[in-house]
Amino acid sequence: MRYQAALRSDEARDSSGKIRDSKFRMCFTAQSKLPSTRLFAPHQCFARASARILKPSLKDRPKDTGKQRSIHKPRSFSMYQHILIPTDGSELSQKAVSHGFDLAKLSGARVTILTATPSYPVTYMEGSAASNREFAETSERQWREDARRAMEKVLEQGKAMGLQAEVKVLSGESVSDLILDTANEVGADLIVMASHGRKGIARLLLGSETQHVLTRATVPVLVLR
């Protein structure tokens, strides 16, 4: 610590050498490198010490330019920019939607919700009985209706979280191709999806399609089980 000391004055002593009631007192301030002896009155000692302890030096203060100082704000978490969430309305698929929304809320990413329903190719149905064709058409209509209901539920959930999601309802021979093509089209850098769908055929379909997405995707894929 650097000190400057103010000592009692020799002139404050009487002829016998005894110290009179002096107006000088000792005070210390962190002012210079080497100790030096100077005389200060009591009020000067207090003022100088207070100035050093309580008030910063004028030359250390920033100059007032009349402009408002800018406040630095930390950047938000932005690992992902666009998240694609395929869903079929199943319970597990809904969990994937919730996780995707949480990531989007944290990172500020855009969200695209995709419901991809399989359609039976004409070649597959050729030579089949009319009843089988009717069953295929009925199943496809049911999947579309389920997709519409799933979209309504997802949009309500996103709105409650303050998120606006783009919705796509597509139909094709390969659900995995629809997912991968959509991810490429919208520029998604993350796919969040369930490991399987509803019970029965739909469960098997989405399960196999998820495996295809995992092996062919060029962006990270988060799979919920």
TrEMBL record:
SUPFAM superfamilies: Adenine nucleotide alpha hydrolases-like. CDD domains: USP-like. It comes from the Bacteria. Pfam families: Usp. InterPro entries: Rossmann-like_a/b/a_fold (IPR014729), Universal_stress_UspA (IPR006015), UspA (IPR006016). Residues 79-225 form the UspA domain. Belongs to the universal stress protein A family. This is Universal stress protein.
